Amino acid sequence: MDGKNSHDQKNIVIIGGSFATAGIILGRLRAKLPKQFRIVIIEKHTHLHYMFAFPRAIAVGGFEEELFIPYDTVFTSPSEGVVITAVATKITPTFVELDRDISLSTLGPSSVQENTITTRTITYEYLILATGAKHPSPTNFNECDTKSAGVRAIQEYRAKIKRATSVLVCGGGAAGVEVAAEIREHYPQIAVTLVHSRVRYMPGYGEGLHTEVKRILDKYGVEQILGQRVVIPEGGFVDDGIMKTIKTNRGIEIECDLQILCTGLTPNSELIAELSPGSVDPITKFVRVKPTMQIADENFPNIFAIGDVNDFPGTKTARSAFAQSYTAARNILYLIRSRDTAGQLVLFGWVLTLGSWFARNFSSYNLGANRAWGALGLKLSATTKHM
Q: For the whole prediction, is pTM greater than 0.70?
């Protein structure tokens, strides 16, 4: 025995197994938790999706297996923490409901009789919402619950790109810019048009970044239409590989046989909206949070929201999510020790994924997936990448 009785422990529940959850919450919170606490992650995917590299993987093959990292090695024992493969369907003030039954034995040591008992509820002392946001594929592949499904989806998308002769990329955020640049760099025979609703790229980062992004896209021959939106047909684009004419809201016509949506994100905030309607912006659907990452409801000081799901100011980047995770972890420890909470540190600079030309200079070929493997307790190798 390691001195902890899992049935007597208090749970810190994290809904969503994001990279920020693995790298910061687990790395810092797990090591410093008092023995009477443990971490419970509720996540529908069997593997972490390292989606920062998805836009590159759909163009450049050979490393997609490295982008799905198993959760089953995160904890050494149930008394330290557990990962439950399920979907959280409801948050109450004291417990989380699941979409399926799980055996109580999953949650730790129990008697033979108890092993036959199941539950759909997980109690919590503190809760962190890290559910992220819905992104259009190929920047997310959220519909793929297993590694094999995710790897297959990336390979199939790459095959579609290779068959195309003219690609329309809708949206000039970090993902759209990378997708456009990657396709033109690796398949120069394919025409690529990028339509962006803003007149500048990455407007939150100043004129210098816009100028650099435009220079690189120009270098690779990406046709750019700024300050306009693509008129998306009712029901969405038909993915049939047939050349069609797509118009912008100002009437510009674009001939293309593949359309890639890289526009917008929809926060997965429904669980908080049901528990605390005032904590969710009725228009943007982002969860309103304090600088401490606690939700903006004085009735629930033990509930936090981090990453893409919240309304914290600034562009949604991995760096921002990491900092928010650290803040939430630190403040949970403060609360456990009956101390005051602390606010979010101000971040300066930018961290964006801007194509393989950027990755080669500032990162690895898989855009840092190795670090995600390490955060989940594994070393990426020729053997482990198949796990």
A: yes
Q: Name the helix (H) or strand (E) containing 30.
A: helix 30-32
Q: How far is Cα 64 from Cα 387, in angstroms, rounded to an integer?
A: 13
**Packing angle between helix 174-186 and helix 207-219, nearest 10 degrees?**
20
Residue 96 identity (one-letter amino acid): V
Three-state DSSP class for 216?
helix
Question: What stretches of 101-252 show up as alpha helix (H) in DSSP?
Answer: 147-163, 174-186, 207-219
Spatial separation of the C-alpha atoms in residues 188 and 88, rounded to whole Å:
44
Give the Cα separation of 191 and 168 in Å (integer).
9
Q: What is the pairing mode between strands 68-70 and 81-85?
A: unpaired
- Tokens 């928010």 correspond to 324
Asked whether the beta carbons of 309 and 268 are under 8 A apart, the reply is: yes
pLDDT in tens, 72-82: 888 888 888 99
* Whether residue 143 has pLDDT greater than 50: yes
**Average pLDDT of span 114-119:** 68
